[in-house]
Amino acid sequence: MKFKVSVIGAGNVGATTAQRIYEKGYSDVVLIDILEDMPQGKSLDMLESGPVLGTDANIIGSNSYNESKNSDVVVITAGIARKPGMSRDDLLITNMKIVGSVTKEVVKRSPNAILVVVSNPLDAMVQHAYNISGFPKERVVGMAGILDTARFRTFLSQELNVSVTNISAYVLGGHGDTMVPLIGSTTVGGVPISTLIKPNRLNEIIQRTRDGGAEIVGLLKTGSAYYAPSAAVAQMVESILLDRKEILPCAALLEGEYEINGLYAGVPIKLGANGIEEIIEIDLTDEESKALKNSAESVKELIEIMDKN
Ligand code: APR
User: Fold this and answer.
1) Which residue among 33, 116, 122 is best mutated to probe the pocket of ligand 1, counting the most ligand atoms within 8 A of its Cβ?
2) Residue 80: which of 207, 224, 212, 203 has the closest Cα?
3) Which of 4, 77, 112, 283 could be cross-linked to 13 through a Cys-Cys bond (beta carbons 3.0 to 4.6 Å apart)?
4) In 3D, which of 121, 140, 105, 168 has the Cα closest to residue 240?
5) How far apart are CA 27 and CA 43, in angstroms?
6) Could you list the pLDDT tens digit for every one of the 309 residues in the chain?
7) Ligand 1 atom closest to the CA of 224, numbered from 1
8) Which residue spans of the chain are classified as CATH 3.90.110.10?
9) Whose CA is closest to atom 4 on ligand 1?
């Protein structure tokens, strides 16, 4: 059975996400943007890679939301990206308006879809999309934790000269300065990280993880990261479409879990055909629990600013 995924925003993150999903072959893809002809051009280019790659999926580009009708999953990447010197929060009001209008258009046409929000500042945008959509909380999820965790695992693998696949870690909380790496649950081949890396060096790696997005922005100069973000989105989409029920760190609406109520935050979830099928509550140290609540509080400030606009 072929699925249908619509990706809204055909810029760097949207186009690479569409490419990754299209290349899997199990889902048709619709790529939508406001820029005339651009999503059509990128999609046709990707479609023409099909014979080489051996994928029979279809991919089309459009400026009309009608093409997104009856999608199984809708990925929202529309918005502006950071430039050097900007924080994710600087995007708030502009992207709030874009994400709000996109959400209205897509939910009308795909009332049963699962929404995966990627636009930044992520936690505020996914909360906004949830509010606008009227969807149950299980069907609105944000991408951030997989990316932050992947950055952390990358740096740890470089540090220890060991395969990334042997590094098990979680970075929870908001997608920004307040993200919370769980040191106690980070292991390398089952060995606790704290026995392998000295605290000072570990703190440097954690700081690099927090600044991971800014590091890429500083190098690219004209935009923000998209290869690792799109890989994270594709993993989420696959877990949903193929009902893999992977446990992944994603932004989910918390209603009492981790003693946080009514706010989206990055936590481990089970992601399957029904969307967020379970929020996994892992034991946190007092310090980690405090940091997670603090992270959610900073998202609350953004939501209050959005409420006034
Ligand atoms: N509807 C559809 N597409 C839109 C809309 C809209 N209302 N407004 C803007 N777009 C499109 C732009 O035309 C552009 O093609 O969104 C695309 C964004 O692409 P980029 O500028 O390349 O940004 P990208 O790097 O893809 O990042 C998109 O994801 O990771 C986050 O912080 C990042 O918020 C940013 C988003």
Assistant:
1) 33
2) 224
3) 77
4) 140
5) 14
6) 689 999 999 999 999 999 999 999 999 999 999 999 999 999 999 999 999 999 999 999 999 999 999 999 999 999 998 878 888 888 899 999 999 999 999 999 999 999 999 999 999 999 999 999 999 999 999 999 999 999 999 999 999 999 999 999 999 998 888 899 999 999 999 999 999 999 999 999 999 999 999 999 999 999 999 999 999 999 999 999 999 999 999 999 999 999 999 999 999 999 999 999 999 999 999 999 999 999 999 889 999 999 888
7) 25
8) 145-307
9) 78
Domain with CATH 3.40.50.720 in the chain: 3-142
The topology (CATH level 3) of 3-142 is Rossmann fold (3.40.50)
d(C-alpha 3, C-alpha 301), whole Å: 38
Question: Across the chain, where does the E strand assignment appear?
Answer: 3-8, 27-32, 59-62, 73-76, 114-117, 140-142, 167-168, 171-172, 180-181, 187-188, 191-192, 246-255, 261-272, 275-279
- Enumerate residues lining ligand 1, CB below 6 A: 8-14, 33-35, 77-82, 91, 95, 98, 101-102, 118-120, 223-224, 226, 229
pTM: 0.97
- What is the topology classification, in CATH, of domain 145-307? L-2-Hydroxyisocaproate Dehydrogenase; Chain A, domain 2 (3.90.110)
